[in-house]
Design brief:
Largest sheet: 7 strands, mixed
Number of helices: 17
Shape: elongated
Bound molecules: uridine-5'-diphosphate-glucuronic acid
Number of strands: 15
Length: 431
């Protein structure tokens, strides 16, 4: 099936390339000419493990092309996925201007039936807004709208797309349902969950809010363990064995970050408020997560006996999580800024996110960057692990002379670290 994907950002690119891998003919459209030129030369403007290789594969199979010309891209396709950005407005609500602009252009430029699908994360009710706008723009146009939210994790996006737990589609008629069945024909049919548009939109926000809640919950349990002497690893593991709870997203840490959870929970609060619904639990999650970064800074400060100024702090990790160069709402970045404000001398390391961090942290003269992890740790008063790169677990610890470690991702076995002579602090305790 020929499919048009509008917006070649993270969601659009991963979806487009993966649809092509499923055998569809994909045309990805973006207004940014330099991005399209880059993609046409085989380069990927984002960091996502395996995506460049998959792009080469689908380009060689002639299953994908990139253009700035939307009219051409729409020609002959039945489905147009809108995967443009939904940045945050000042009040926390999602800015739908790009989504609506794309829908309007589809209405203006299409000369045959289209199923217009929102893939971008959009508040409940957006499908209806898109429908109204398209109808007003081109009353003769034969179209339907639908919602197909994505559940891709950065760093594991291809795996998430290719082996989904479920594929959610919100439709308004049988024809749309059949189109989706064809698009996702390579997956077991029971994976395809068909619902109405508003429920599909809500499922996305509810899922992200629930996962964020789970993280905030386990972080508070870590605090409780730390205060009472409980073992957070064993607590988390045992809780997770209960299938009603599940073992995923129970790793305590410096709080959740990234471009999704922080933004999406503010957006759901916003549109719930408009609907006169008070999501009091989600408000608590926001404040619990906001406080988290300060708590981590206090933890580091306490390990340094309250003397952060002029202490050399090796910060391991800048990305909001491992396997990405993304630093949006990264707890590591907030912690770096706060420690720098207290006068600490930060030497920051990351496997992918240094370039992005240099821009974000440019104003801090006491934050330096180091590509070599052992060099970053040299002569440090403390090592603070802020991102869960697996590579840190494989370090040759005999090369590290610093004794104090604040592991904000609980990457190591506390007892072993103590035996190796480290003063090892982790989220939920100390050895
Ligand atoms: C998240 C969801 O997991 C995806 O399903 C969803 O599609 C995506 O948002 C989105 O809405 O586009 P992502 O933001 O890429 O994906 O990252 P996650 O792996 O969910 O991690 C989010 C944050 O939670 C990170 O800062 C991570 O370090 C933190 N986290 C995660 C924890 O602190 N503990 C955990 O146990 C898990």
């Amino acid at each position: 099936m020929k499919i048009t994907v509008i917006g070649s950002g993270y969601v659009g690119l991963v979806s487009g390339i993966c649809f092509a891998k499923l055998g569809h003919e994909i045309v990805c459209v973006d207004k940014d000419e330099s991005k399209i030129t880059k993609l046409n030369s085989g380069a990927i403007p984002i960091f996502e493990p395996g995506l460049k290789e998959l792009l080469s594969e689908v380009v060689a199979a002639k299953k994908i092309s990139f253009t700035t010309n939307l009219k051409e891209a729409l020609n002959g396709s039945i489905t147009a996925f809108i995967a443009v950005g939904t940045p945050q407005d000042e009040d926390g609500s999602a800015d739908l201007s790009y989504v609506l602009a794309a829908a309007k252009e589809i209405a203006e430029l299409s000369d045959s039936y289209k199923l217009i699908v929102t893939k971008s994360t959009v508040p409940a009710g957006t499908g209806a807004k898109v429908k109204k706008l398209v109808k007003e723009t081109n009353p003769q146009f034969d179209f339907a709208v639908a919602s197909n939210p994505e559940f891709l994790r950065e760093g594991a996006a291809i795996e998430d797309f290719m082996t989904p737990d479920r594929i959610v589609v919100g439709v308004e008629d049988k024809k749309s349902e059949q189109i989706f069945a064809e698009i996702y024909a390579k997956f077991p049919s029971e994976k395809l969950i068909v619902t109405d548009i508003i429920t599909a939109e809500l499922i996305k926000y509810a899922s992200n809010s629930f996962l964020a809640t789970k993280i905030a919950f386990i972080n508070e349990m870590a605090d409780l363990c730390e205060a009472t002497g409980g073992n957070i690893k064993e607590l988390s593991h045992s809780m997770g064995l209960d299938l009603r709870i599940g073992d995923k997203f129970l790793n305590p840490g410096p709080g959740f970050g990234g471009s999704c959870f922080p933004k999406d929970i503010l957006a759901i609060l916003n549109f719930a408020k408009e609907a006169d619904v008070n999501l009091s639990l989600i408000y608590s999650v926001v404040s619990s997560n906001d406080k988290r970064k300060d708590q981590m800074v206090e933890k580091v400060s306490a390990i340094l006996d309250g003397e952060v100024a002029n202490k050399k702090i090796a910060l391991f990790g800048l990305a909001f999580k491992a396997n990405t160069d993304d630093i949006r709402y990264s707890p590591a970045i907030t912690i770096a800024k706060k420690l720098a404000q207290k006068g600490g001398k930060i030497i920051a390391h990351d496997y992918e996110a240094i370039e992005n961090s240099k821009r974000e942290l440019a104003e801090f003269k006491n934050i330096e960057f180091c590509e070599d992890v052992y060099e970053a740790a040299k002569d440090a008063d403390i090592i603070v692990i802020a991102t869960e790169w697996k590579e840190y677990q494989k370090l040759d610890l005999s090369k590290i002379k610093t004794r104090k470690i604040a592991d904000l991702r609980n990457l190591f076995d506390a007892k072993k670290m103590k035996d190796l002579g480290f003063e090892y602090h982790y989220v939920g305790g100390k050895e």
